[in-house]
Predict the 3D structure of the following.
Amino acid sequence: MFSDFIKSRYKDIFGSKAKLILKEFSKEPKKCIRINTLKINPKECLRRLKLKGFFFSRVPWSRYSYFIEKEPKAVSATVEHLMGYFFIQDASSLLPVIELAPKRTDVVLDMTAAPGGKTTHVAQIMKNEGTIVALEINKNRMDSLLSNLERMGVENTIVLRASALKVKQLGLKFDKILLDAPCTADGTMGKNQRLRISLTNEDYLKYSRKQKELITAANAVLKDKGVLIYSTCSLAPEENEEVVEYAVNTLGMKIKELKTKRYLTPGMTRFFNEKHSSFLKKCGRVLPYQYHTQGFFLAKLIK
Ligand SMILES: C[S@@+](CC[C@H](N)C(=O)[O-])C[C@H]1O[C@@H](n2cnc3c(N)ncnc32)[C@H](O)[C@@H]1O
């Protein structure tokens, strides 16, 4: 099922919790929908889907997002989905946008945007006002980003196919930045079975290096006192705490308390037998067995 490397790595990092995490990774996470209030009110959307036999329970941290408890047919194959009344995403991945809390007047940068789960959520909270600049480097993923923006009725977003590493060339500064970084995705092993055996130590180190480059690029275009949310769907300290520690200690950013912290496991201050900064407690992790989601990490930083 899981490679020896993953088993011993998880035991090393998570101790007694490792068993629970890997057990949860042996099954698919709960499916969740975020209702798109740009197009429909949540009550009406739920009413329509319940008539088709779907059952839901509320996601504790979002007023317009629901776990699917009974799915008589694929929810993606409903008219409501095609109409852009909801977006299917992991419940944990709602958290970075909730923490970003974009205002209707903000200029927001989504550094690594495809397929647009978070860009469309940002637009929803901004009520299609203000401006979002969404960057994506990969051509195929760009297509899915564009079609999701269209389906969800997003109108306040400029989409550029570009490397976020070169964002400074735009000559813009941003009130808020979301860096939902490319990562090993090791928190998605429940869904992505291949990762259970394919991940290597090199993968973690390679992504950690890339994430530090991306957060450096983000810091350079963030306004003074601007907010940066850093997130990954990885549970690895190299891709998470280490990147945040770099942002604080090397780039001079400040870490802030997460307002959703009651749902989260605090960041780690000791890993791989080394002590790290105590401020890392302010980061948050969603361990997959807590809410039957994928594994996720986030942190809020201020310039
Ligand atoms: C974790 S995914 C983003 C998911 C997206 N935020 C969402 O919620 O739907 C990371 C994305 O970063 C893109 N990416 C990787 N390197 C990049 C770079 N240098 N500049 C811009 N995008 C990049 C990948 O192609 C991938 O689509």
Q: What stands out?
A: The two ends are 43 Å apart (CA to CA). The pocket of S-adenosylmethionine is lined by residues 93, 112-118, 135-138, 141, 163-165, 180, 182 (CB under 6 Å). The domain at 4-28+91-302 is CATH 3.40.50.150 (Rossmann fold).
